[in-house]
Design goal:
Blueprint (H helix, E strand, L loop, with lengths): L1 E2 L6 H9 L8 E6 L5 H11 L3 E6 L4 H11 L4 E2 L7 E2 L3 H11 L5 E9 L5 E5 L16 E5 H7 L10 H10 L4 E12 L7 H19 L5 H14 L4 E2 H10 L1 H6 L1 H15 L8 E2 L3
Parallel strand pairs: 1-2, 2-3, 6-9, 10-11
Antiparallel strand pairs: 4-8, 5-9, 6-7, 6-8
Pfam families: Glycos_transf_2
Keywords: Transferase
Protein name: Glycosyltransferase
Length: 286
């Protein structure tokens, strides 16, 4: 569990792990340079349960905290959770059993419920099929994978903070088997600190880079163009010309067929960008 100034929800997040029906685990909490009460909360909770280990480091960002935690891990199965989210009590037991029953699977992942800052239900997010990974992050927030996946991929890319998980799953799908588990096993919290325009803009830019990279590996021009167009329309903060250019080069008819949706997307992006305090900008770097 990477922790950075997570005092508001940290106790709930840790308790959700400690209350798992599957009990044979270690919880490595990596304090990534917190300046709030998080270190004291971690210390107090570690005194009450020997399965908690605390690792501290200067602030280096989420991917670096994940890599530090997994470098310390001794278990043969890996997972991680955030300091503001919660596991349902049967998450680990269900996913451990899924890997046991499917020895050819390397990664299993489940659906989750999105909640607000007060813990109120927003929606359920089912797991997507691995084949949809060019159109959405199929894995989501509830997952378990074999240690060999971490070793083969070299951990999380520390230059992709905010999209490190999507990058990890995209790279993993090239050589490992991913299996969805159609159960609700996690509570994913959306709150003000996690949904700023600045953060979302950065994540959208990184995801666009990932899709541009992955589509270069696809031998089907139409599929490549479809993936690029879906990513283009998913971003209402910036119109990314590079995605449109690459889609056009890959398969022109796919772009032509989507002209009505593209026109609507452009209008929606302009409407968003001309709000007070915004300047209209076309992104050409991603």
């Amino acid at each position: 569990m990477p922790v950075y100034n997570g005092q508001t929800y940290l106790k709930s997040a840790i308790n959700s792990v400690l209350r798992q029906s599957f009990t044979d685990f270690e919880l490595i909490c990596v304090d990534d340079g917190s300046t709030d009460r998080s270190p004291r909360i971690l210390a107090a909770m570690a005194k009450r349960d020997c399965r908690i280990r605390i690792v501290t480091q200067p602030n280096a960002g989420l991917p670096a905290a994940l890599n530090r935690g997994f470098a310390e891990a001794v278990g043969h199965l890996h997972s991680w959770t955030s300091d503001d989210n919660m596991l349902r009590p049967n998450m680990l037991a269900t996913l451990v059993e899924a890997l046991k029953s499917k020895p050819d699977s390397d990664i299993v992942y489940a659906g989750y419920t999105v909640i607000d800052a007060q813990g109120r239900f927003i929606r359920y997010q089912p797991p997507a099929n691995p084949e949809e990974r060019l159109f959405t992050n199929p894995v989501g927030a509830a997952f378990l994978y074999r240690r060999e996946v971490t070793r083969a991929l070299g951990g999380y890319d520390e230059t992709l903070s905010g999209a490190e998980d999507y990058d990890f799953w995209l790279r993993a799908a090239r050589q490992f088997t991913m299996t969805p588990v159609h159960q609700d096993l996690y509570l994913y919290r959306r709150h003000a600190a996690s949904m700023t325009d600045t953060r979302m803009k950065r994540i959208k830019s990184l995801v666009a880079r990932l899709i541009l990279r992955e589509t270069q590996l696809i031998g089907e021009p139409e599929l490549r163009a479809r993936a690029l167009m879906v990513q283009l329309r998913a971003d209402t903060l910036t119109f990314r010309c590079k995605l449109l250019q690459e889609a056009w080069k890959a398969h022109r008819m796919t772009v032509v067929r989507q002209l009505p949706q593209l026109s609507y997307h452009i209008a929606r992006t302009v409407k968003h960008r001309i709000r007070p305090g915004h300047k209209l900008k076309a992104g050409r770097q991603s």
